[in-house]
Write a structure and sequence with these properties.
The complex is a heterodimer of chains A (about 80) and B (about 210). Chain A is built from five helices and no strands. Chain A is mostly helical. Chain B is mainly alpha-helical. Chain B contains ten helices and no strands. Classes of the chains: A mainly alpha (about 80), B mainly alpha (about 210). At the A-B interface, helix 2, helix 4 and helix 5 of A face helix 3, helix 4, helix 6, helix 7 and helix 9 of B. Bound molecules: zinc ion. The site of zinc ion (ZN) has 6 residues of chain A, from helix 1 and helix 4.
């Protein structure tokens, strides 16, 4: 397996959509390729960071204001 | 109903199904519950696409109102949430186009860029790299980084990886094929990884690149 082959399957590996056989092949490549190991770990970390950090938060007062506006218009039949 | 429950492997109906049915019967309080449940997500998605706070506020309101008006058209064969997201994505794209008159804004155009499709930065990251930044600073780095992606990549990444839609739901929501979603997702992930690398390298790497003196 080349690094290019590995990269083509990176998403499937991250999303746990590879067959057991394929997983073994990918693991073997990882065992001897430090570059792909870094790419895999840092890509996983990238996703995790975006998932766990709220970068556009909705402050409670704004949320309440928007919520009230939506509901009052719905009650009027929009 | 016993006949439905007796079907092998039948999943419990999603709690939204009952809420939607109540709204259809004229119960506005059930809609209040649905709005509460999804307003944060819708606001976040709208911000990611429009990159403008006022637009995001408008999109969120308009999307919920539109969904309310069009509830009769909701088929129930897709999740209420994905249906709602689709409305919000369309509203967001409309706003984005208004602001960027003359500039092509489309999620289905094929994005002609190879940036990030081959990883270049292969130095490892610090163990918990986000800990080297304060909350506000980190949020700014993450915003700046994701804002630099082409809209078609950004939206796929946000729906699939941040909001947790499945690949199929993302495809359905955006009117893209599953392979198109997959190829965008891989490139979005790799581009973000590449761009974040400069902030998250181990100390040694940072000094080499001159970010830390
Ligand atoms: Zn490799």
């Amino acid at each position: 397996m080349t690094c290019k082959d590995f990269l083509a399957l990176l998403d499937d590996l991250i999303d746990d959509e590879v067959s057991p056989n394929m997983r073994t092949e990918l693991q073997t490549h990882l065992g001897r390729c430090g570059h792909c190991e870094v790419v895999l770990n840092t890509t996983r970390k990238t996703i995790e960071i975006y998932r766990s950090h709220e970068i556009y938060d909705l402050p409670t007062d704004l949320r309440e204001r928007l919520h009230a506006a939506i509901m009052s218009r719905c009650k009027k039949g929009c | 109903m016993p006949t439905i429950q007796s079907i092998a492997g039948q999943l419990e109906p999603h709690p939204d199904v009952a809420l939607v049915a109540r709204v259809r019967d004229g119960d506005v309080s059930a809609y209040d519950t649905l709005v509460r449940k999804y307003e944060r997500q819708l606001f976040r998605i709208a911000q990611h696409i429009t990159q403008n706070r006022e637009d995001a506020e408008d999109v969120m309101q308009d999307a919920f109102l539109k969904a309310y008006e069009k509830l009769e058209q909701f088929q129930g064969n897709s999740k209420f949430y994905t249906w709602l997201v689709r409305i919000a994505v369309n509203e967001s794209l409309m706003r984005l186009r208004k602001r960027r008159t003359g500039r092509m804004v489309s999620i289905d155009e094929d994005i002609e860029t190879d940036e990030g499709s081959v990883p270049r930065d292969l130095a490892d990251w610090a163990p918990d790299p986000e800990q080297n930044y304060g909350q506000a600073e980190l949020a700014e780095i993450l915003r700046k980084t994701i804002q630099g992606l082409p809209p078609g990549f950004r939206i796929v990444f946000v729906l699939r990886d941040v909001e947790g839609l499945s690949t199929e739901e993302t495809a359905e929501t955006l009117g893209l094929s599953v392979p198109a979603v997959k190829s965008r997702l891989l490139r979005a992930r790799l581009q973000l990884r590449e761009r974040l690398s400069r902030y998250f390298h181990k100390k040694k790497g940072l000094m080499e690149t001159g970010i830390v003196k």
